[in-house]
Design a protein that fits this description.
Elements (H helix, E strand, L loop, with lengths): L1 H11 L16 E2 L10 E2 L3 E3 L6 E7 L2 E9 L2 E9 L7 H14 L3 E7 L2 E10 L2 E12 L2 E9 L5 H12 L2 E2 L18 H16 L13 E3 L3
Length: 225
């Protein structure tokens, strides 16, 4: 009798709440799935983890922030997030377009297997110079993340590893608004950068100088420890 009642009480007792754990070993993560909590730069549509000595610059198209560049020790990682269809990914299509664009411009591009699946190992021609570049793509739920490695990270596995770890821990915030495929997911300045920009504009107004253009070189966030 005692044992039966104890089992009944155990069944009736509410289960203790458990912290959701990631179902995958690494990201990029979707904002709605369980992912490791850590310090990230909040850009709205993207949350970027950065390490000691990393510098972040923002890509701007018109008045819209569409991407970010992470600089570290002679290497660069450029990331852009786009809307994608619910049922299918777009990396195969985007990769074909990139390959055609690179070869049309006088460069070369070869499909190789990389840490994120099939990627493009390219030689991109810019003027008289040719630069090695790696194009990687990750299809997520209703979003697509493009990661472009250049500098040392394009040819040196050891140099690429810290930036690859950044990609693995990015959180993409797609949102619920309807968006056509390949439309950039809009980003925004993090709070500390917005505050700095407002201070610059106030100082410019007080000194009767034209407003400073915060996007002339790209807003920067530098972490040094």
């Amino acid at each position: 009798m005692f044992r039966r009642r104890r089992r009944e009480r155990e069944r009736a007792a509410p289960a203790a709440e458990e912290t959701p754990v990631p179902q995958r070993e690494h990201g990029p993560w979707d904002a709605d799935e369980p992912h490791p909590e850590r310090e990230r730069v909040d850009l709205g549509g993207l949350q970027l983890p950065i390490g000691p000595g990393f510098e972040v610059q923002l890509n701007v198209a018109g008045d819209q922030i569409v991407g970010a560049v992470i600089l570290a020790d002679g290497s660069a990682l450029q990331v852009h997030a786009f809307a994608a269809p619910k049922s299918t990914g777009i990396w195969d299509e985007v990769r074909a377009d990139l390959k055609r664009e690179v070869t049309t411009g006088g460069g070369t591009a070869e499909e190789v297997e990389g840490p994120f699946g099939v990627e493009l190992a390219a030689q991109v021609k810019q003027g008289d110079a040719v630069h090695p570049v790696r194009f990687c793509g990750i299809d997520g739920p209703r979003w697509f993340l493009r990661a472009v490695f250049s500098g040392k990270a394009a040819i040196d596995a050891d140099a690429a590893r810290p930036l690859e770890d950044v990609v693995r821990d990015i959180v993409v915030v797609r949102g619920d608004a309807p968006m056509p495929p390949k439309e950039p997911i809009e980003l925004r300045l993090p709070p500390e950068a917005r505050h700095a920009m407002e201070q610059q504009q106030q100082a410019a107004a007080q000194n009767r100088r034209p407003d400073l253009d915060p996007f002339h070189r790209g807003p920067e966030i530098t972490e040094t420890r």
